[in-house]
Amino acid sequence: xxxxxxxxxxMTAMGGSDLHLEEGRIPKVRVNGDLLDLPSPALSNDRMRxxxxxxxxxxxxxxxxxxxxxxxxxAMGDEARFRAxxxxxxxxxxxxxxxxxxKVLSLDDLGAPDVFKGFADMTSGLVVVTGPTGxxxxxxxxxxxxxxxxxxxxxxxxxEEPVEFVHRCKQSVISHRExxxxxxxxxHGLKGALKSDVNIVLVGEMRDRETIExxxxxxxxxxxxxxxxxxxxxxxxxxxxxxxxxxxxxxQIRSLLANSLKGVVAQQLVKSAxxxxxxxxxxxxxxxxxxxxxxxxxxxxxxxxxxxxxxQAGMVTLDDCLLEMIKAGKINLEAAxxxxxxxxxxxx
Length: 348
Fold this sequence. Notes:
13 helices, Beta-Lactamase, single chain, 2 domains, six-stranded antiparallel sheet, Rossmann fold, about 25% strand, seven-stranded mixed sheet, about 40% helix
C-alpha cells in the first residue's frame, strides 16, 4: 500500500472528486464544488517527495523533475483509479488527483439528453465536447463510447493523456492508447489510428493545430471523431478551431469544419439547490441546414438563434438550459448566474 492511499481513502469517504496537495499547505478535497481541508498537517517538501515520488516511480519522477509537469493514471489496487497531475510552482511541489469512477456510467445513469444517443448512432463526422477542467467531459464521452460499445459493432480507438475510463469490449473492439506511453502525441496517435481500419476515434484533447486538422480530415474521410476543447459555448468552440490556423488557411479549415461538424456539447457542472450534488448543464448544437453556411461565413453570432429555433431537434443554449433547471428546482438563481453566458438574464 502506498503512503498516499490513506489520503485517497479519506477523500473517497468524504465523497470527494479531487485531492489537492500543495507544499506548505494542508491537503484539500473538492466535494460538490467546494474545497475542504483534510484532517492532516501541512505538507513539507520531504513529505511531498515521499507521497508523489512513491507512486510515480523513478522514471516518471525524473521526467517530472526535468519538465515541471507530469500526467499519469494511478490505480489504488482494485479500489479506485485516479488521474494524477503533478506541477512545480512558486511554493514548491503541487499535485491534483481526480478520481476515475471504476464503473463507466451509462447515458441513462447520467440523465443525459436523448440526442447524446444520436451521436453514438452516427457513422462519421466530428463531435466536440467542451467545457472547463472538471466539467465532466470525460464522463460524458465515456458514456457515449459505452453506448456504442453496447449497441454497435465498431472498431474504436481512444487516445488520451492519461487513459481514464477503461472499457471492456462488448459488441465493439476498443483499444486504449496513452500519450507518452503508447504513442508520442495526440497527433501521432491519430495518424496511427487512421491506418488501423478504425470506425471511431476519441481524441482526449485537440490541443494543437496539427491534431485539429487531422481530426477534421479523419471526420471527412468517414470516421466518427470525438474530441474535447476547453471552451464554454458552441460559438467559441467553432471560433477556437478556426483561430488555431493562420489566415491563409482559415477558408480551407472553415470548409472542412462545415462539411464534418455534427455536434458541439458545451458542458458545465452546477451545484444543486440542496448543495448535495452537481447537475450537468448543456449547450447543444447539432448539424442542420443553416450550420455549414454560418461556419463558412464566420457569423457564429447567429448560432444562438439557430439553437433556439431548433429546440424540437434537441438543441439548446446554455442559458436556456440553466433557466429550465431553475424552474425544475434543481439549481438556484445564484448558481445559475455563476455559469451563465448572458448574466443579465439571471439578475434577480
